[in-house]
């Protein structure tokens, strides 16, 4: 009687001595390869699920800056702008659409507004939102937040999701990476279903993966803080630019910082600065406070000057 060993093949070539030559069970290697393939395929599926189809509306300097990172992360990018940026889009792996109807018919997961503040209303009204899927997520990256929030709530039907974000950095400050740079956001309106909440999370993960400091706050709170941190910075920088300051051999570190401030603020368009003033109600009050502070400082200086002049006038007068 022949007793088969579990590791002995039932069929195999025989050697000259009549013994069965042992061959390793090929099926086990096949099982291992199949297991590896299944794991790889599952990983690929999870990776693809993390990717979003994002339509960037407003493909100027800042839109292209964002697209670089979005493309590197593997997201499917669509682009639309009033100007022809098809060449720039192609270089970043994005598909450019000059007609917003064609853009919306691609059914993006996210419509990201990266327009100037002043043109946002006209651009949003020009979008044929009826061609989008009913649960599309709308987002913006404007430097003011109450304005786009109210605009979205006014013009977008309730079946669209809304998140307002402000990456508080740009092509210059973020050119070496986004680690530690703040991303301020408010989830204005996100549907209750799990897939819509997951899509919002995947959108925010874009910035979290790059190491951004995630700051969740209301749009109103953002604007109150940004009036001082952003509008004031731009105002001082542009005010100094009016003086036409020059570098010299005796520059102090403080003066160099002022020159850098001028360069950084004036590299942005005046349209952006004007938008920070026009569409943030806190900016008007801050400008008035700045004006009062400057007047107060001048009065303090001239008061000291008058005291010195009086002393010199009366103390140097001849005695009678």
Automatic annotation (TrEMBL):
Q: Which residues form the Prephenate/arogenate dehydrogenase domain?
A: 52-320
| Entry's Gene Ontology BP terms | tyrosine biosynthetic process
Q: Which domain of life is it from?
A: Eukaryota
**Annotated PROSITE patterns:** PDH_ADH (PS51176)
Entry's Pfam families? PDH_N, TYRAAT1_C
Keywords, ordered alphabetically: Oxidoreductase
Asked if the record carries the keyword Oxidoreductase, the reply is yes
> What's a single GO MF annotation on this record?
arogenate dehydrogenase (NADP+) activity
What name is this protein filed under? Prephenate/arogenate dehydrogenase domain-containing protein
